[in-house]
Hints:
This protein has one helix spanning 29-41, and strands at residues 11-14, 44-50, 56-63, 69-75, 83-85. The protein is of the alpha+beta class. The protein has one domain (3-85). The chain has a five-stranded antiparallel beta sheet. Strand 2 (44-50) and strand 3 form a beta hairpin.
Amino acid sequence: MKSSELKIGDRIRITEVxxxxxxxxxxxxxxxxxxxxxxxxxxxxxxxxxxxxGSPWYHCRFRKRNGQMEYHSLIVMSSDTNWxxxxxxxx
Length: 91
């Protein structure tokens, strides 16, 4: 599935840090840390909005050791292959 086919409310699971194996792919160390946390906890995230270019975004949060929350917003790029769509449970 392509990122352009996602809709608000869809759930995806992050499977790895994006850009693995792509030459000259630049990503900030803080962002790598967030992706590694998402991979480790194995939870899905919900697509919450689209930007003016039609790219889907999701939000995540983590509890720090001191009890405070840290919040992040991440984009699903069209070239990213580091996510899978989570199928809805049947009731």
